[in-house]
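Researcher: Checking consistency across runs. Here is BolA family transcriptional regulator again:
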Amino acid sequence: MNTDEVERLIESGIEDAEATVTTPRNPDQEFEDAHFAAVVVSPAFAGKSLVQQHQLVYDALDGHMTTDIHALEMKTYTPEEYEEYAGGE
């Protein structure tokens, strides 16, 4: 599985989501490119706890978390939160 495939799964599984997925570290010989990092922005996160937001991402990835993806670092934002975050950099 590559970063484009992970992005596609997240974006198709969460309404109006925009995902940016990268590989945050060198590939592990045992798991190859199974370590990913994702920044996901969606209005669907509004009013949800961080745990609920992350669960939406895991749900969008369906069974891939136990087969194709070894680890996923994620940051989730509503569009308003992301604008504040990105504006502060």
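Researcher: Does this match what you'd expect to see?
Model: One thing to look at in this run: Residues 50-61 form the longest helix (12 residues).
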